[in-house]
Design goal:
With 498 residues, this protein is mainly alpha-helical. It is built from 21 helices and three strands. The structure holds zinc ion. The site of zinc ion (ZN) has 4 residues, from helix 10 and helix 11.
């Protein structure tokens, strides 16, 4: 085989993988947005076949031979192509280590688990979910060995979401946060609470939709390349850097839920839209890791979206959308209300300060489950004990406790820490950005273009071209969790007059 011929085959393989992914994503998008209610079965058949075909295409022995051939001549390859071969070889080795029957069995199990979890959550009945969760944990321990048998199982799983991150790294990170955040929460508990009652007024969905359109505009999201839809749980779905979809969910009783979900998902969308053209239709064409992705969404949501200059910039327009609800409210009051810190039960509704403690509870439990020191049957009791210990709240039932998140039912163990890492990375990016450019002058005028340009240059454009740790280093310098802790301490001390 000639090198040119091999390179053409490599490009063709990646375009085909993209096509399978795009087809599956379209079905998913359809199913969660406009498809009629009782139509999941047919989509399930199609999705199963697409997944099987994709697996067959990628795990074929010819693919292994092609990748070996190219790797043997890696010194002749240009950097992006060499990186593609490296990444594909890693995925290929991993995929072919998992026996085909176990792979299929696991796919069926996660399908079933999602359904069982929904029912268990609805009834707040952990016992219903327990047998499935036991199987999921056992599978993940086994798969961790296929991923990397030289690592402890949980480290191997963490590595799948954030390459280079392990328990040692996270133990240090979380210990720093806990030491700094817990005393802050206690101090805030002694203070008078912020009045956020005006957030809890009826906000008509139609006006909220128009407000979302306005936010998309402020974020600089070109509607010719990014639409906004409505789903039960907000998400971002990317096809390529010219076609990204975000969704939100409107709560008529509170305007802030959809407001910040639009800004959050908008941050994910900015990342995908900012990835360089020459990486499209290759395996490097998406965000590099979950942690880096969350750093972008949380950057927009919290560091910008929950800042006083940003709120001051958008508030006059916001009052036009909601004249009755916000007529007597000032930008400053609104800023304080959306930053109210209060230990609570539900992770997705938590404020910026207490959020990481929710993640820590899940991290501790996963670590012990996958490490084999906690039995599945003891998850609810451990969950409740840790919520009391970290957040000081009593968990009334499993629905608002260990059954609240969908991640485990989807087979994701090791995903949660990415959320907290993303917040910490974002704080360091802001510090560096402030050294490079005037951040707050333009933001206070509603102009986010300089912020976007900085992030595009330092993070977005690279897609998967660099290792996650190198992207973080490029934008943050050396990772230092005290920067995030300092940011929180400063912000909340000012808010609560500590
Ligand atoms: Zn997110």
């Amino acid at each position: 085989m000639e090198l040119n011929e091999a390179l053409a085959k490599l490009a063709e393989l990646q375009r085909k993988l993209y096509a399978y992914q795009a087809a599956s994503s379209s079905l998913y998008l359809d199913g969660t947005t406009v498809a009629p209610k009782d139509t999941a079965e047919g989509r399930g058949v199609a999705l199963g076949i697409l997944a099987g075909e994709r697996h067959k295409l990628f795990s074929a022995p010819e693919v292994g031979e092609l990748l070996d051939f190219l790797w043997a001549r890696k010194d002749e390859l240009e950097h992006p192509v060499r990186r593609q071969v490296e990444e594909l070889r890693r995925s290929y080795a991993q995929l072919t280590r998992i026996p085909a029957d176990e792979y299929m069995e696991y796919a069926m199990l996660t399908n079933e688990a999602s359904d069982v979890w929904h029912r268990a959550k609805e009834k707040s009945d952990f016992e219903l979910f327990r047998p499935v969760l036991e199987k999921l944990v056992a599978f993940n321990i086994k798969f961790a060995g296929y991923y990397d048998s030289t690592k402890a199982p949980y480290d191997a799983l963490l590595n799948e979401y954030e390459r280079g991150v392990d328990m040692k790294y996270l133990d240090g990170f979380f210990a720093t946060l806990r030491e700094r955040i817990v005393p802050l929460i206690h101090a805030i508990g002694e203070k008078e609470q912020i009045d956020d009652s005006f957030l809890w007024r009826p906000y008509p969905v139609e006006a909220q939709r128009k407000f979302s359109d306005y936010l998309m505009e402020v974020l600089g999201l070109d509607r010719a390349h990014c639409t906004i839809g409505e789903t039960e749980h907000p998400y971002t779905l990317e096809f390529n850097n010219k076609d990204v979809r975000i969704t939100t969910n409107y709560d008529e009783g509170n305007v802030s839920f959809s407001m910040f979900s639009v800004i959050h998902e908008g941050g994910h969308a900015k990342y995908e839209l900012g990835i360089s053209d020459d990486l499209q239709y290759t395996c490097l064409a998406g965000g590099v890791s979950m942690g880096v992705h969350e750093s972008q969404s949380r950057f927009y949501e919290n560091l910008i979206g929950r800042s006083l200059p940003f709120i001051q910039a958008i508030f006059p327009k916001m009052r036009e959308f909601f004249p009755e609800q916000l007529g007597g409210v000032t930008a400053e009051q609104f800023y304080r209300a959306v930053n109210k810190a209060q230990p609570s039960l539900i992770r997705t509704e938590a404020d910026e300060l207490t959020y990481c403690l929710h993640v820590m509870v899940r991290y501790e439990i996963e670590k012990q489950l996958i490490g084999g020191t906690l039995a599945v049957k003891d998850v609810p009791a451990t969950w409740n004990r840790l919520y009391k210990e970290y957040l000081g709240v009593d968990v009334p039932d499993d629905k608002r406790g260990c059954l609240q998140d969908s991640h485990w039912s989807g087979g994701s163990f090791g995903y949660f820490p990415s959320y907290a890492l993303g917040s910490a990375y974002g704080a360091q990016m802001l510090r560096n950005m402030e050294q490079d450019i005037d951040v707050w002058g333009p933001v206070s005028k509603g102009d986010l273009s300089q912020v976007s340009n900085w992030l595009r240059e330092k993070v977005h454009q690279y897609g998967g071209l660099m290792e996650p740790a190198d992207v973080v280093k490029n934008a943050c310098g050396d990772f230092d969790p005290t920067v995030f802790a300092d940011y929180l301490e400063k912000k909340y001390s000012e808010l609560y007059g500590l």
